[in-house]
Amino acid sequence: DAATDYETILVTRYGPALVVTVNRPRALNALAQQVVAELLDLTGRLVEALPSVDAPAAGEWVCRGVIVTGTGEKAFVAGADIREMSGMTPEQAEAYARDMHRVTLNLEALPVPVIAAVNGFALGGGCELAMACDFIYASENAAFGQPEVSLGLVPGFGGSVRLQQRVGVGIARELIMTGRRITAAEAHRIGLVNQVFADHAALLDAARDTVDTIAAQAPTAVANAKATMNAVAHRSVADGLDVEAAAFRAAFTTEDSRIGRDAFLSKESASFSGR
Ligand code: HXC
């Protein structure tokens, strides 16, 4: 409801998805401190609100996913705001980075899928915002990169951690040390991007369709699967399997799992309760 108070992000509905659009087209949607503050407020509210929407009133709209994108056809997000950063002390720069870290952790904490719809430049902080989403779709004109070393900086919004996880150690190090920009096609080839679409409209449609597909699954299971994958990301195989075993056990306590198994055995389609 507070969505209308934001000045640098737009929050709209598209099918079952909430679309969060970074909206500073004159600066190629760069993440000025105000954008970070507004993303932090919004994502904090979503973390609070979403776990409690499992039993909506009839006809009530329920958020089944979040799509993150940028205004226009040119840029998703062209990075941190270089103009603002040039006036920051090291302490202010760290606080700026830590605030954006909280945004990325909030996106990961959401119990619904978060899809980055990368519609153009996703550089530096833009690439890092995309990587905080569960997965990335892109338009053909998208471009990715971590150009911080060209500015005498290093990735500050999570890129040092998440790029290695996404594409592996060798490619991540090459990209971060060269600052090289890559096309959507190359990003697709190295596994950073799942699918590439002709333009922004097709990209948003595809993201919405995927949210629809996921919304037809058991909501408790989707949330559990995401939380489990987050929890095991930094663990050894043995520790990760322990976490997975507990999650699998927890899935068995849900009504959704009973509904899903009964539907399969009676050859009917499942209608999940979200409990
Ligand atoms: C502030 C930016 C910006 C940015 C673009 N603009 N990127 N302003 N911060 N990151 C502004 C330009 O200054 C310009 O404003 C307008 O947007 C249009 O950009 P142009 O450069 O004129 O467009 P173009 O020539 O097409 O080049 C597009 C571009 C280039 C290749 C994306 O803008 C670019 O290289 N931007 C910087 C990309 C980058 O290095 N990002 C990483 C930032 S570091 P005016 O007023 O002149 O029209 C980072 C660190 C994260 O993200 C961690 C921090 C803690």
UniProtKB/TrEMBL annotation:
UniProt cross-references to InterPro entries, sorted A to Z: ClpP/crotonase-like_dom_sf (IPR029045), Enoyl-CoA_hyd/isom_CS (IPR018376), Enoyl-CoA_hydra/iso (IPR001753), Enoyl-CoA_hydra_C (IPR014748)
Keywords: Lyase
Gene3D superfamilies: 2-enoyl-CoA Hydratase, Chain A, domain 1 (3.90.226.10), Lyase 2-enoyl-coa Hydratase, Chain A, domain 2 (1.10.12.10)
EC number of the protein: 4.2.1.17
Enzyme class label: lyase
GO biological process, one term: fatty acid beta-oxidation
Reaction(s) catalysed (UniProt annotation): a (3S)-3-hydroxyacyl-CoA = a (2E)-enoyl-CoA + H2O; a 4-saturated-(3S)-3-hydroxyacyl-CoA = a (3E)-enoyl-CoA + H2O
Record GO terms (molecular function): enoyl-CoA hydratase activity
Annotated family: Belongs to the enoyl-CoA hydratase/isomerase family.
Protein name: enoyl-CoA hydratase
